[in-house]
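pasting for ref. prot 1 ->
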Amino acid sequence: MLQYFIFSGVFLFFEHVFHILGTWKFYKKLGIKSWKIFIPIYNIFILLKIYKKSIWWIFLLLVPLTSIMLIFILWMDLIFSFLEKTKKNIILFFLSAGLYIFYINFFKKIQLLKIENINVNAKKKEDNIGILLAVIFSFITHTYIVQPFVIPTSSMEKTLLVGDFILVSKIHYGLRMPMSPISIPFTHNNIIGNIKSYISIFQWPYFRFPSIQTVQRNDIIVFNFPKDYHHKIIDRKDHYIKRCVGLPGDLISIKNGILFVNHKKEKFFSEKQQAYFIKTENIPLNIEYLKNKMDIEDIEYIGEKNDEFFYQIMLNEKKADQIKNLFENIVFIKKYILPIHFKEHSIFSNYFDWNRDFFGPLHTPKKGEFIKLNSKNIHVYNDIFTYEKVNKFDIFYKKYYKVKNNYYFMMGDNRHNSSDSRYWGFVPEDHIVGKPIFIWMSIDWNRESPLNMFHWKFRWDRIMKTINGKHSYLSLFFLFSFVYLIYFLFKNEKSSTQ
């Protein structure tokens, strides 16, 4: 939580500085005092008042894409308060994506035009209620519509990278109403350390509105971690993000590291990563090259013996082939699959001799179905009885149990570096938070010291992209710009003929 607020604050700070650098001369010419120019949000609020736009426009600042649009609109108003709306100025503004304002601000002498919708000398107090409304609207958006998250771990690489900032829709799978009504706004479960940000003695019952779409197999989902024992209220448990590979009623099994759902092999997707065991001779791998040029982060050096060097690296198949063809001193590179008889003690339901690569078969419980209980599966479904608040002593005397809720089986795309349902079991439907929509910002930082801004690198190819990387929301910005260009050209042409 702390990391997200730090990075979000840095992003908003850069956006604020960028706005000031491009508009300070305009503010001065409008008679705005210097100290007001530097106050975030308030400086936007002043422009909205000057141009007689509704204070509700301030809400556009709350989402990265719409905040850019709002600033774009205000820049346009500023420019054409000092320059004539000629075709040349309009085209230059749009072709430069608004950056034309910097040229005007620093290199051109500007003079305020007499425009009816500007009243600089009006002696009305700025109404600070606008800022308060912005905060309220932001809280409502954050709680009921869309919530920002940052990816802190590599469990979903290469689909989602450490440093990806995502927006998650809370309404796609049905809005889950808050269960802890008394809490500090914009916080999740803890403020600092173990100090909780909410009062747990007040708890609302679980309620979810109808969904826009149902959970589909292979959807990426944000959910509350079921085994977070530090927080009893569901919506205050830690957030996890994984891929839903098993729907209610599905049969899950893993054989030799390959996932099977209902006896069918999972569909291939190129971003899936696994552990590869690599051996080189005479010369070690160039770790710096792998990290800086091939964007490979999870590299573990195992050791050296007789001029042979051993590594374990998390790779997808494409990266594995690239490494194999790139380094001539590689003796072998192969997937690191655990033996079938090797038992991982941390695996879900350690009653069985399962591990990450040989798992199941395991049935995913479905609402309304009857499970026949026996000495083996009663250990598997023990958590279900806890989630559904069933007296476990009564269960031992029953042959069947009717499931009250739907459950899901989650796995990370970084299959050998993910704490998922293979280790802690099913996700109840009431733990589901929402569906990731797109990546609005992506920063590649030093994972050992992420707050060191001098090592930050923006991943420009991921900003404003959908999760699957197939579509970019930047196109909406350019579409918006084009519509505005046509509108102003038409308006200017019409006014010149009158």
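and prot 2 ->
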Amino acid sequence: MKNIFFVFAILLSNEGAFTASLRPDPSVNLKTLVNNYGYAVEVHHVITEDGYILELHRIPGVINKTFSERKKKKVVLLLHGLLGSSATWLVTGPKRSLALILVNKGYDVWLLNNRGSTYSRKHVSKLETSNRFWDFSWHEMGIYDLPTTINYVLNNTNQRNLNLGCFSQGCTQTCVMGSLKPEYNKKIKFVLALAPAVFWTYVGGIVRSLIPFTRKMVSLFERVGYHQLFPAFTQHRIFPSSVCSAKSIIQPACISAIFSIIGIGYEQLDRANLEHFLKYEPASASNKQLLHYALGAYYPGTFRLFDYGSEKNLQLYRSITPPDYPLENVNIPFAIYHGQNDVLVDPKDIGLLKRRLPNIVDAYLIPGKLNHYDLMMGLNINKLCYERAVALMEKYN
């Protein structure tokens, strides 16, 4: 048990000593990727209320055809998961990428990169190498990153509201915003939620064995400061992408390691392109984000603000326990799609969410044994899920 504790400590404190100058501009690679698919891409930046500089990627249409030439003006904002970035929505290519499928349907597609991920690693005053930079969870992404981005997108598209697509943590921050800033709910027509990570009562896989140490980890990092999880620079991606390639004799071991975290999912596994996906992910995060999820498993059945311990909770919340997020405020049309073999977002946790959200318009357990990332990377995910989800989104547009 002590060994697990130390593994957890190392995992959550994986800061990595480096400077931003050692890492090439990742936006260049993303632009090349999207342009090679035949689509135009724009880079935008916004500054949050607490000073983080976020990079947004916009895909207005195919190259040499501006969005103004298109008849439909439907806007959608896509939010990535923990350790992801906007690249998560794009690496599978035009036939499987939900972002590009929506572009082909006439949508003006925007992709948010949350603070700390590959493309959003700057602050107006904090250095990314400092602990102060990494002192955030998905709570801040919900109350700062998402509202700031929604305002920017609506101002730039002259629209009153937009559609929102989220994967995993992206849905978490959507529920945070909808709970605590309900005035933004009227700015969203429809939410397409893929494996929404809200309740973590039934989380499984290797993560489950780490949950008992959550309180100790919070106490530790409150003293020493929070760090980044899986630093997003090239050197950290060379090894996993090479050993997980289709040519590697140890690819099966690599796949087993991944499945121990996200769930078994051989049916939809794209072995041939696994190396390509791992060139873009993991895309970094704060260890505080993972700890916030773990607290939801440590206290089963809860979806709460961050639990710092009774003393700091009293200072922040005027209560020894943090308040629950009032999910009853999230009255946006919410469509949920999830997989049977997802150990990070267990179907029973989806059941808890269904009982709390007031306006669920679809709740679909996808046929087959899909794991967490099959919702983004699955070989046949368009037929299995996206066609149904996009058809429903069209009704709201």
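The domain at 2-395 is CATH 3.40.50.1820 (Rossmann fold).
The CA atoms of residues 290 and 333 lie 27 Å apart.
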